[in-house]
Write a structure and sequence with these properties.
Blueprint: E1 7-10, H1 16-28, E2 33-37, H2 42-49, E3 53-56, H3 64-75, E4 79-84, H4 100-125, E5 133-137, H5 150-170, E6 175-181, H6 192-199, H7 211-222, E7 230-233
Parallel strand pairs: 1-2, 1-4, 2-3, 4-5, 5-6, 6-7
Helix pairs in contact: 4-5
Bound molecules: NADP nicotinamide-adenine-dinucleotide phosphate.
NADP nicotinamide-adenine-dinucleotide phosphate (NAP) is lined by residues 12, 14-18, 37-39, 57-60, 85-89, 104, 108, 137, 139, 181, 183-185.
Length: 240
């Protein structure tokens, strides 16, 4: 297969919001889509059948990231955008200090984005598109803090810092922004009581779904002037 140009790379694209973004890029743009996934599942095959390039990679595994960069460089001559979507949602009981799970939060949310930004910088610069973007997905709760997910939120807070740092380092050629979503999509095992509580936290009490992430990504990628920003996507949660 010949190498593709102006690709959009989405990490953790095998399900939910990541998979939605893969589909949107395929349907709404001409950019070839490359996505990483960790767990093989039917949705990955569906996305490949639509034309996306899928690369399996567990960001916590030793040597996974250098291997990923090598494969990307075989398949892609230039990158239009990188979207750091891969994420682990663990509470403090699931990820106590010094555990593998604690380290995994920082590998997935901090080390992998830094490594990919540094090692794919030349492919972004090789894009002939008017704009080049890196977008990370952190979490609205970074600015509010919940006392059950301190490690998770620390790692997402670090991700925001990573994006601001690269916005400075890569300006003016590459824009780097973060989207900090509040409730977007419930998890399968969330019960009705939890859902009600979460909905009541926002001025706009809806489960908006991945479409609002797409709207934010679309805005950021088409903006000529926004870089180093944290876009709060919170349904007015900060008002309550
Ligand atoms: N959903 C919401 O309401 C919400 C709210 C706030 C922030 N966000 C943020 O928005 C983004 C997307 O949310 P989501 O709910 O769609 O997330 P999600 O369902 O948890 O999916 C995240 C993806 O990350 C991948 N991943 C996890 N561990 C990995 C590892 N070790 N190596 C490589 N990939 C790994 C998973 O891959 P596999 O499935 O292949 O294992 C999964 O596809 C995330 O960054 C999340 O923090 C979402």
């Amino acid at each position: 297969m010949s190498q593709v140009k102006n690709a959009v790379l989405i990490t953790g694209g095998g399900q939910r919001i990541g998979a939605y973004l893969v589909r949107q890029f395929i349907q709404q743009t001409d950019y070839p889509v490359v996505f990483t996934y960790r767990t093989p599942r039917a949705e990955v095959h569906e996305l490949v059948s639509l034309g996306a390039i899928a690369i399996q990679c567990d960001f916590t595994a030793q040597e996974a990231l250098p291997g990923l960069v090598e494969i990307i460089k075989e398949k892609v001559v230039s990158i239009r955008a990188i979207i750091h979507n891969a994420s682990l949602w663990l509470n403090d009981k699931q990820a106590p200090p010094f555990s593998e799970e604690y380290r995994a939060l920082f590998k997935v949310h901090v080390e992998a984005p830094i490594f990919l930004n540094q090692n794919l910088h030349s492919l972004l610069l090789a894009s002939n598109d008017k704009f080049k973007d890196i977008i990370s997905l952190s979490d609205y709760s970074v600015s509010r803090v919940t006392d059950s997910h301190i490690a998770y939120l620390s790692s997402k807070s670090a991700l925001q810092t990573v994006s601001k740092g690269f916005a400075k380092q890569f300006a003016p050629n590459i824009k780097v922004n973060d989207i900090a979503p509040a409730l977007i999509q419930f998890n399968q095992n969330d019960d009705e009581e939890y859902k009600k509580k979460r909905l009541n936290q926002s001025a706009i009490p809806i489960e908006p779904g991945a479409e609002v992430i797409w709207q934010a990504v679309d805005y950021l990628m088409n903006s000529s002037y926004t870089t180093g920003s944290i876009l709060q996507l919170d349904g007015g949660r900060h008002l309550l």
